[in-house]
Write a structure and sequence with these properties.
The structure holds two protein chains of two kinds.
Chain A: E1 4-7, E2 10-14, E3 19-25, E4 31-37, E5 43-49, E6 52-56, E7 59-64, E8 69-74, E9 83-90, E10 96-98, E11 102-107
Parallel strand pairs in A: 2-11
Antiparallel strand pairs in A: 1-3, 3-8, 4-5, 4-9, 6-7, 7-8, 9-10, 9-11
Chain B: E1 3-7, E2 10-13, E3 19-26, E4 32-38, E5 44-52, E6 55-58, E7 65-70, E8 73-78, E9 87-94, E10 105-106, E11 110-114
Parallel strand pairs in B: 2-11
Antiparallel strand pairs in B: 1-3, 3-8, 4-5, 4-9, 5-6, 7-8, 9-10, 9-11
Classes of the chains: A mainly beta, B mainly beta.
């Protein structure tokens, strides 16, 4: 069993749909990161969570420490949201364990 | 503002040749620095991290090594490349102090193809 798992592996949505990507982890963490990797490979950090919920524009990330589960939500999805979304478990900055990624395609 | 640079952006090297990838950070002091690799069709893997000059921790045994000759410079090297070294290499940094609470910032990456 992988230490960090994501679902779904692939996701295709129509523009405007509400999207949820899930992440479950089995390791102890100090924080959980959500990353966005664009088709060219560049990676952008979206959120870093240690508890509760964070919101940036149309993106919302939540984490439940007791259940070791985090979700990334995208409201009113747009084709430019198409990317691979990766969650990463952070053990005090010294040991990052990455999920396999969720490939999102948003169709116009 | 802080900026992270990586070069080269792309690299094609024959098996057995040496490798040197460089990462530099501007606008911050004493960052924690990281090297990651993403093999084709696979997830990110942490290779090395450094909390200071000359301090390198390796996460996985491999054909690669890392060095930090200056505070804001992180170098990934190999003496003899293997086919399995092909991949996308990313450098990242976090700030000082409570580093485990800090966000990671990624460089643009180097795409390495070993033939």
């Amino acid at each position: 069993k992988n230490e960090v798992e994501q679902s779904p592996q692939n996701l295709t949505a129509q523009e405007g749909e509400f999207i949820t990507i899930n992440c479950s982890y089995s390791v102890g963490i100090s924080a959980l990161h959500w990353l966005q990797q664009h088709p060219g490979g560049g990676i952008v950090s979206l959120f870093m969570l240690s508890s509760g919920k964070k919101k940036h524009g149309r993106l919302i990330a939540t984490i439940n420490i007791q259940e070791k589960h985090s979700s990334l939500h995208i409201t009113a999805s747009h084709p430019r949201d198409s990317a691979v979304y990766i969650c990463a478990a952070d053990n005090y900055g010294q040991n990052f364990v990455f999920g396999p990624g969720t490939r999102l395609s948003v169709l116009p | 503002s802080q900026t992270i640079h990586q070069w080269p952006a792309t690299l094609v090297q024959p098996v057995g040749s040496p490798l040197s990838l460089e990462c530099t950070v501007e606008g911050t002091s004493n960052p924690n620095l990281y090297w990651y690799r993403q093999a084709a069709g696979r997830g990110l893997q942490l290779l090395f991290y450094s909390v200071g000059i000359g301090q390198i921790s390796s996460e996985v045994p491999q054909n690669l090594s890392a060095s930090r000759p200056q505070d804001r410079q992180f170098i990934l090297s190999s003496k003899k490349l293997l086919l399995s070294d092909s991949g996308f290499y990313l450098c990242a940094w976090t700030g000082v102090g409570q580093a485990y609470l800090n966000e990671q910032f990624f460089g643009p990456g180097t795409r390495l193809t070993v033939l």
